Amino acid sequence: QVQLVESGGGLVQPGGSLRLSCAASGTIISIYSMAWHRQAPGKQRELVALITSDSTTNYADYVKGRFTISRDNARNTVYLQMNSLQPEDTAIYSCSMVIGRFRREFWGQGTQVTVSS
Description:
By secondary structure, this protein is mainly beta.
């Protein structure tokens, strides 16, 4: 079975930075797209950034120029570098990956990011 584990969340002041990581473990032959999502209190989950197998990236408009998604295929890991964080970025951040011949989507459990002074 495949398991995704996020790390790197925490409390940061406005203007600060955090780097999230999400590592996949288990029986993995190939990983297609990788993505980060977030869900703020009282709001629906939204896609933050996505990276395809050929490293094409897409970002939500509100994070363009501040967040960078990247992947390390050898480590089955996706990263999210978050700069210039603002209080409205406070949310639970979760990763997802499309894995295997049947292109099944797997999810991590989420990590809390809090931006506050």
